[in-house]
């Protein structure tokens, strides 16, 4: 009979689990369909919208300043905009400012008496989502001329290698520390209040708080060198720290430090309130054993029921202070968790682009769900070692399931918002990292399913399902003092080691040990998820620059163009496919340069469908990049010349292996950027 009952319970549990899974899949499918129905182009990092003087233009007289206008607010440093003459000599006055106080502009003054010729503008700024961006373009005074610009004088958007590595490590540690701090605190409040009195749990909480403090300070110190592309030696420059504090991400980091002070008070209350032994029931304190025996022997059934109800009320009254403490601490912990999450979300991808009002709360939910799951795994690993029962594991299993559901829903939304199109999933660095993260999460879910099987075994074994009470083993007499007898001292040392080992390993039954191993594997995969998450936040979603960086690999599918001769016309054919359903979604982009040489080049762009007929598109952008010299992308201002035809002028200042990229958008959500390599000189 008992086995049959166990089988019925297991069958009901499987049915309930399947229903939850089907419900979750239905909810995610509906959410995905809703988002794709209203999909639009997603915004990435700041992009350069316009310049004054215009890119590739020829002005009659020397301008007094160069003004850049971006797609969003940018932060500037003392060398964010540099202007170089044809010989590579700086001709700007330095210290660029926002034009007319507008945050999406950058203006730098020019020296007087500039000679005729072609000038190169190299710019570097920090976009509103806290990521550095950069590029270059040219304009000419009087007439175009050849120019030889030193590549070392140009600024790209790349940080120093060591600084970038340390900065990324600091951000990863901050994510992990937040997950540990918030997840362990939630585990204690919801699943295992008695854990607040255990030393290993207290060490986990203190580790999370300390690591978050150290990583926040490190990221704040490294922010200045990271933005400016300078070396690690600038990390201690207090002027850079002050500048960083004036930016959005600096404000977020400062707020996080203040929140850590509040979190320290919260942790002391958590351990102080829940770490105390529970108060004894009132009946036990006033009635005594004799009264209980009398009630059991002489009372009839009604009196026994009344006595049981009274004892239950007394027990609730004794537990009320802890319940109230847990409720108050839970509310305070939730407020802190939301505030901590906002310090990330408010200074990252969610804070700019489309649907900011929806992206911000979704980002906060994503981070909190991540902390509940990953931090809870660390706490569960310790709890199993301490001998918790199946009831505690069951509570966390429900929390983990809800966290996974929230992670899936918010993750799908964030992915759609960051990618903007299905083609970006495999065509950009952001999309590839997203696939890696998805794979890691799938592995975590597989390991979590194994953990559920271990949990089922724990439930089915009554002797193991109950929580193990840790008995305090008294220290042997004389153990506190050092013995002069070496043999006796060795015996005392062995006794101490045996007592410590017994207290540590008592809760690890074979089933608990198997469950703990599964949880540890899940936690290790979680570390990989956090690393990939940090890389995602540092990757521009869908930028043309990422396509150009991989242009060599893309162009490798076709034979590279031969070295051109001065004055020779070059025709480059770039097949494209935006994966859309409109007639203009697939065809060939033809770029013609005449003459193909260093200096000014007349450019023609033609878009034809598969049948060779001209097609028009809502948006097309043409740019040239010289990867070997870290020059570009240099956009070309295109003028329509009929259906599917555009013309313009490209200023290619140096000889070398150039990469041409054509960004083509055939609809609101379908976009691609084919690239091809060619040589000049």
UniProtKB/TrEMBL annotation:
The keyword Nuclease does not apply. Residues 45-141 form the CopC domain. Its main location: membrane. The chain crosses the membrane at residues 173-192, 204-222, 249-271, 327-347, 359-384, 396-413, 433-450, 519-537. It is a multi-pass membrane protein. Residues 549-567 have a biased composition (Low complexity). Residues 391-464 form the Copper resistance protein D domain. Keywords: Cell membrane, Copper, Membrane, Metal-binding, Signal, Transmembrane, Transmembrane helix. It is found in: Cell membrane. Residues 81-105, 476-507, 539-569 are annotated as: Disordered. The keyword Transmembrane applies. InterPro entries: CopC/D (IPR032694), CopC_dom (IPR007348), Cu-R_CopD_dom (IPR008457), Cu-Rt/internalin_Ig-like (IPR014755), FixH (IPR008620), Ig_E-set (IPR014756). Residues 482-496 have a biased composition (Basic and acidic residues). This is FixH family protein. It comes from Kitasatospora cathayae.
């Amino acid at each position: 009979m008992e086995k049959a009952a166990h089988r019925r319970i297991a069958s009901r549990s499987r049915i309930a689990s399947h229903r939850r899974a089907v419900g979750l899949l239905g909810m995610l499918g509906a959410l995905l369909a809703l988002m794709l129905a209203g999909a639009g182009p997603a915004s990435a990092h700041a992009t350069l919208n316009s310049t004054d003087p215009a890119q590739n233009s020829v002005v009659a007289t020397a301008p007094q300043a160069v003004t850049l206008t971006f797609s969003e607010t940018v932060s500037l440093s003392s060398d964010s905009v540099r202007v170089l003459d044809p010989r590579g000599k700086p001709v700007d006055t330095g210290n660029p400012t926002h034009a007319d106080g507008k945050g999406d502009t950058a203006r730098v003054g020019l020296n007087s008496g500039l000679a005729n010729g072609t000038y190169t503008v190299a710019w570097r700024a920090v976009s509103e989502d806290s990521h550095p961006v950069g590029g270059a373009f040219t304009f000419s005074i009087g007439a175009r001329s050849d120019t030889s610009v030193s590549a070392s004088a140009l600024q790209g958007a790349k940080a120093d290698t060591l600084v970038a590595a340390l900065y990324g490590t600091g951000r990863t540690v901050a994510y992990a520390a937040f997950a540990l701090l918030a997840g362990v605190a939630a585990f204690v409040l919801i699943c295992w209040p008695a854990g607040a009195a255990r030393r290993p749990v207290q060490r986990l909480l203190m580790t999370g708080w300390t690591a978050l403090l150290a990583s926040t300070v490190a990221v704040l110190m490294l922010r200045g060198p990271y933005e400016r592309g300078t070396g690690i030696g600038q990390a201690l420059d207090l002027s850079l720290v002050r500048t960083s504090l004036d930016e959005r991400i600096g404000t977020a980091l400062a707020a996080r430090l203040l929140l850590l002070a509040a979190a320290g008070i919260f942790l002391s209350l958590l351990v102080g309130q829940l770490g105390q032994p529970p108060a004894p029931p009132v009946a036990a304190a006033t009635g005594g054993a004799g009264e209980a025996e009398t009630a059991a022997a002489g009372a009839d059934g009604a009196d026994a029921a009344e006595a049981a109800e009274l004892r239950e009320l007394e027990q609730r009254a004794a537990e009320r202070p802890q319940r109230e403490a847990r409720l108050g601490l839970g509310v305070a912990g939730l407020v802190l968790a939301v505030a901590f999450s906002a310090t990330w979300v408010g200074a990252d991808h969610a804070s700019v682009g489309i649907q900011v009002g929806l992206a911000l709360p979704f980002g906060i939910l994503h981070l909190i769900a991540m902390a509940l799951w990953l931090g809870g795994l660390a706490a569960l690993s310790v709890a199993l070692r301490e001998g918790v029962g199946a009831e505690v594991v069951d509570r966390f299993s429900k929390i983990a399931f809800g966290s996974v559901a929230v992670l899936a829903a918010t993750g799908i939304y964030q992915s759609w918002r960051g990618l903007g199109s299905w083609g970006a999933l495999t065509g950009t660095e952001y999309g590839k990292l997203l696939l890696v993260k998805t794979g890691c999460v799938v592995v975590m879910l597989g390991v979590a399913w194994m953990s559920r099987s271990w949990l089922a075994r724990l439930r089915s074994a009554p002797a193991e399902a109950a929580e193990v009470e840790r008995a305090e083993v008294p220290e042997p007499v004389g153990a506190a003092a050092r013995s002069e007898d070496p043999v006796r001292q060795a015996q005392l040392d062995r006794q101490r080691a045996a007592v410590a080992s017994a207290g540590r390993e008592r809760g690890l039954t074979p089933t608990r040990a198997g469950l703990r191993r599964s949880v540890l594997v899940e936690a290790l995969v979680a570390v990989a998820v956090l690393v990939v998450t940090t890389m995602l936040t540092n990757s521009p979603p869908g930028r043309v620059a990422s396509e150009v960086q991989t242009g060599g690999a893309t162009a490798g599918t076709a034979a590279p163009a031969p070295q051109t001769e001065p004055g020779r016309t070059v025709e480059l054919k770039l097949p494209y496919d935006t994966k859309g359903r409109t007639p203009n979604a697939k065809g060939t982009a033809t770029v013609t340069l005449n003459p193909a040489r260093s200096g000014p080049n007349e450019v023609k762009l033609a878009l034809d469908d598969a049948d060779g007929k001209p097609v028009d598109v809502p948006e097309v952008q043409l740019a040239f990049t010289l990867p070997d010299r870290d020059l570009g992308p240099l956009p070309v201002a295109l003028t329509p010349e009929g259906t599917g035809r555009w013309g313009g002028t490209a200023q290619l200042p140096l000889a070398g292996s150039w990469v041409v990229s054509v960004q083509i958008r055939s609809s609101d959500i379908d976009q691609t950027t084919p690239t091809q390599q060619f040589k000049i000189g």
